[in-house]
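During data preparation, a discrete fold description was generated, and the record follows.
___
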Amino acid sequence: MIVRFATKNTRKLGEATLGCQPFGITIEQADVAFQEIQSKDPVEIALYKSRRAFEQLGTAVVVADTFWTIPALNGFPGAYMKEVTRWFGPQDFINLLMPYPDKRLCFTETVVYRDGDQQRIFSGEYWGVISPAPRGQGIAIEQVAEFNGQTIAERRNRGRYSHEPQDFVWYEFAQWYAGSRPQP
């Protein structure tokens, strides 16, 4: 089974591959180009991306969107994390949260499958904290976003991703996709 995944993000491609491999699903990267919308609703963003990708490819496609929330900062940065990490270093995130006792953060990963007949939405929330000091090498948020005692950067520096494959929303997608297709 092959799934076309519209992304240029190597992290997302790797997570999709790891989550789908146990089900015999191969992820094929599809190149699409469109302006992404910004919204306070992560599902709305992913649905928009899936419509644009399907229009361009004319075939079944999967998209993913990652939406970051820091409760102490009223949900900042939301859909803007990609842009924020171009401006902020790891210490900037730590400094922003310094006056607040609540150091929690969450990323919501939303995967949308779309073909000519249906769309399916899979979404998961991953809660962690902003660490008190940067750890590991990578983009700013990866050095301070800590899940289960390790920053994303520390895990990536060891060749891993933020979570185990069975914890990715991709795993849920793969279970559905493998079960919804006729077996050879």
Remarks:
- The first helix runs from residue 10 to 20.
